[in-house]
Amino acid sequence: MNLQAIPFEWYLILAAVLFTIGAVGVVTRRNAIVVFMAIEMMLNSVNLAFISAAQFLGDINGQLFVLFVMAVAAGEAAVGLAIVLALFRNKRTVYVDEVNVLKW
Amino acid sequence: MSLQVALFFLFGIGAIASAIGTITRRNPVAAAVNLIVHFFMLAGLYLTLQAQFLAILQILVYAGAIMVLVVFVIMLLNLGNEEALREQFTMRKVLGAAIAAIFMLQLGVLFNASPSQRYLSPNAASLGTAESIGQALFTTYLFPFEAISLLLLAALVGAIILAKRKVE
């Protein structure tokens, strides 16, 4: 294989693979914290796609989007983990399939 | 093989391996450690794209702040290994496989797309600096910047209200 540089598509393919792994993690895991970590992984794969688009097309806007995604992810981390904590305090579980208080 | 290609494979394979490790480990602490490795690999990938400011930010925000929060909550809850589901287990597996298949289909489309951009943009290195990002952040994106600070404040207040014990 004689490659001088990595083409744009390869970064997009890598981002798509990582997004897939994250999506599979969200549906297959029971532990709410691990589900949460898989969501972070999906956000990060989108960040990778944004940055590669910004750097290959020579446009700064993609990097600014990544900044905002990171800020939203930080806020989501704080609120999401607080919800997990409140859930554990009330139901003594963090398994998402055991939480059915909204199911009538 | 140039350095960028070698580093891409190193970090790319590392990122995929640690991502798979994150979703397959039964122990939540092991999953969290795998995720930290994953974030570092992604920061390396950002460096191969010459986005040095965001690579540093990735390590600071994700590996530094978010993962500390996650590990702290795992420690607080004192969770054991996750035991497998008995019922519904096959349904979840089928759903997971279906999602994987759909995304792999999209990957096939990407593989067959005609190559568009072979090389990094010539001004990629100057785009990745803190200077150019700060320039854009405080001029074009000033309003979103202020809005995101309000969002972070709201998240802060919300997290405290959700997590605090009832006084009185």
TrEMBL record, chain A:
EC number(s) given by UniProt: 7.1.1.-
Which EC class, in a word? translocase
The answer on whether this UniProt entry bears the keyword Magnesium reads no
Q: Does the keyword Transport apply?
A: yes
GO annotation, biological process: ATP synthesis coupled electron transport
* Compartments where located: Cell membrane; Membrane
User: How does this chain assemble?
Assistant: NDH-1 is composed of 14 different subunits. Subunits NuoA, H, J, K, L, M, N constitute the membrane sector of the complex.
What exactly does this protein do? Answer: NDH-1 shuttles electrons from NADH, via FMN and iron-sulfur (Fe-S) centers, to quinones in the respiratory chain. The immediate electron acceptor for the enzyme in this species is believed to be a menaquinone. Couples the redox reaction to proton translocation (for every two electrons transferred, four hydrogen ions are translocated across the cytoplasmic membrane), and thus conserves the redox energy in a proton gradient.
The entry's protein name is: NADH-quinone oxidoreductase subunit K
Source organism of this protein record: uncultured Bacteroidota bacterium
